[in-house]
Amino acid sequence: MDEKLEEYGGSARVPALREADFDTLLREVLNRIHSAIDEQERLRLLLDAVVTMAADLSLDGVLARIVTVASSLVDAQYAALGVLDVGHDRRLRTFVHHGMTPVQVSEIGDLPTGHGLLGLLIDDPRPIRLHEIAAHPASYGFPANHPPMNSFLGVPVRIRDRVFGNLYLTEKRGPGDFTTEDESIVVALAAAAGVAIENARLYEEAERRQLWLSATAEITSLINDPVAGSDALQTVADRAREVARADVTWVVAGADAESLVFRVVSGVDTDIDAMRALPLDRSLASTVVRTREPVSVPDLGQDPGALNPAPILGWPQLGPAIFVPMSSGSGIEGVLALAWFPEHASRFAAVDPAMPASFAEQAALSIQVATARGDQQRLAVFEDRERIGRDLHDLVIQRLFAVGLSLQGAGRRIADPDVGARLSQAVDDLDDTIKDIRRTIFALGSLGDSEDIQAEVTRLVDRAAATMKFRPVLRFEGPVRSLVPAEVAPDLLAVLGEALSNASRHAEATSVEVLLSAGDAVSLTISDNGSGIPGRVVESGLGNMRERAHKHGGRLDVTSAADEGTTLSWVVPL
């Protein structure tokens, strides 16, 4: 009997039990039986908690379940789980709590971020049990309206060899503090919680990957839809921002670091023209173009290689960002950038750069395929119109011309002047008809004057000829009609009009040459043999030309000498 008593109670209590009466011994045995039953019940609750946590695949649901179960297992009035941030300071970015009413939470204000006693557990992640929180040297105290808390138990929550966060329990119900048994139970719960959290995070990561895959398929469908009617790059930026939960996204286009220009922005209402005037040759986007590798930065405001457009109206201060190349089979089309506000840095940490990189690559390929398909469709239209024009020229015009010749010959042999006049009028009408058909054949060479840059340039040169009293020499090189982008055409025509006007009013030129070429770049060159540009001229018109070039990532070169003429070269890369 003594040996059994020593086994259950230890040697210190054996003398007391030897002297106790039967009722006392019976009560002691019953108390120990109840303790064993309570311990078994807590273990059963712990096992149930592990099973229920594992069944929840949402991270928020798992965290809320953990604090609720922990509070029940050790009879704590309050429980909380602090999730560590991914930054260097390792403070709390999420604080999930249990036990306080919404009114109490509202009166307390901001939730803890990881200082004081909570910070001690972050810096030294080992279990802590305290009788009185306020008595600990690291305690900061509590803010106003905070409920009283005395006893404390804190344990780290680990995922493999990394600390995910810490579990905090306060105010043990009933007399006494948290015991070693409580600590053991919570440590076991924290170990199981680490596995459940890891499973939930893997599930969320799989869902994010599925979202990226769905977005990739959707963007491919939209870009290749001929009736979609939306700008392809804007669609890419909008969809990437939604999937990544980014605050701002933008696309810069260009085949090399020197030709990059802002094309579209999503998430903020900003001055896109002002954005397009920014030099990007030394930006992070240019680094991505040179290396063709994604670039991630924790803070755009602190990165020396980042371009800061914050002074532009509507552009916010941004924190972390990811830049990914939009690569296609033939090269690089541009860069997709995703950025978050500093307070949303956790969203940045949840994005695997490989996913937006794959999305951008597929979007670039889709845009290239859609462009090629559009070119094929335009080529088919040109070929069809060329066939129609050839038939009109070879068949209709020739037959009309033959009829006209026959009528003209017959008119000479008719004595009646009225009949001869009518035949002569018929021949003139046929000549006019032939001219109309020839003009139609010329018009068939384009998709319409509104889209035919070559026709517009020719019209401007013809208009200038009426003012100059001589016609400038006009030459075209390369597929001008098909390669000059629609967004570049208005600026190109404005530059040509300004240059011809200057040559007419100021240069006193007797000869002007205009060359428009399209290849790797759109190049407009206007040369005259006039008096040249004075040394102290105010660059109003030239400044506008230069601004129009910079807007598209291009340049304006001016060469001029007194009495030797002026050459303007306006170049925009494709």
TrEMBL record:
<dbReference type="GO" id="GO:0016020">
    <property type="term" value="C:membrane"/>
</dbReference>
<dbReference type="InterPro" id="IPR011712">
    <property type="entry name" value="Sig_transdc_His_kin_sub3_dim/P"/>
</dbReference>
<dbReference type="InterPro" id="IPR029016">
    <property type="entry name" value="GAF-like_dom_sf"/>
</dbReference>
<dbReference type="InterPro" id="IPR050482">
    <property type="entry name" value="Sensor_HK_TwoCompSys"/>
</dbReference>
<dbReference type="Pfam" id="PF13185">
    <property type="entry name" value="GAF_2"/>
</dbReference>
<dbReference type="GO" id="GO:0000155">
    <property type="term" value="F:phosphorelay sensor kinase activity"/>
</dbReference>
<protein>
    <submittedName>
        <fullName>GAF domain-containing protein</fullName>
    </submittedName>
</protein>
<keyword id="KW-0418">Kinase</keyword>
<dbReference type="GO" id="GO:0046983">
    <property type="term" value="F:protein dimerization activity"/>
</dbReference>
<keyword id="KW-0902">Two-component regulatory system</keyword>
<dbReference type="InterPro" id="IPR003594">
    <property type="entry name" value="HATPase_dom"/>
</dbReference>
<dbReference type="InterPro" id="IPR036890">
    <property type="entry name" value="HATPase_C_sf"/>
</dbReference>
<feature type="domain" description="Histidine kinase">
    <location>
        <begin position="492"/>
        <end position="574"/>
    </location>
</feature>
<keyword id="KW-0808">Transferase</keyword>
<dbReference type="InterPro" id="IPR003018">
    <property type="entry name" value="GAF"/>
</dbReference>
<dbReference type="Pfam" id="PF02518">
    <property type="entry name" value="HATPase_c"/>
</dbReference>
<dbReference type="InterPro" id="IPR005467">
    <property type="entry name" value="His_kinase_dom"/>
</dbReference>
<dbReference type="Pfam" id="PF07730">
    <property type="entry name" value="HisKA_3"/>
</dbReference>
